[in-house]
Amino acid sequence: MEQLEQIPEFKSSPGLVEKLNQYSIRKTYQAGSVILNENASIRSIPMVVRGTLKVIRTEEDGREILLYYIKAGESCIMSFLGGLHNETSKVRAEVEEDAEILFLPTDKVSLLIREYPQWLDYIFRLYHKRFEELLQIINEITFKKTDERMRSLLYKKREITGENILHITHEQLANELGTARVVVSRLLKQMEENGMVRLGRNKITLM
Prior knowledge:
alpha+beta; Jelly Rolls; 46% helix
């Protein structure tokens, strides 16, 4: 598969690409679909071929926060770790953009680690990237104001989609930021007054 062959660690290992295609099940999903829920058993590891996933953590009081995005060529390191240790999921994975995903059964993960060092290199690279992203989230929550975090999130979504028009509700933004909807609405109104965005029904246009 051409998409897998473009992953840096896989370019030198056509045998690994062949095994991933052989062992995995391919599925397509529309935006908004949930492919993994919190506390669910992890039976397979998702590898995104096309589109984008977002990984969300929900607290006991119902508040949510966006942890990171999974783009084409990437996988969910939390699924790797949970699957290897027979643990349930600590996060929810939701489709941000229409996606095509390969699901690799967890029993094949260890097999590929033994057979292909490139597979282990891939896992370590993902682990390092996610660790840095989580550190960034902690830094933003600790040191940045909500308006700065929201601007950062909006620009990140534009980077992922390649579009200035974002189809998202105030409630969804509030959930991803871990704040209240009324706060998001107030901040977006301020951004509109400052000419930074244009607000519409369930959409935000970045200027």
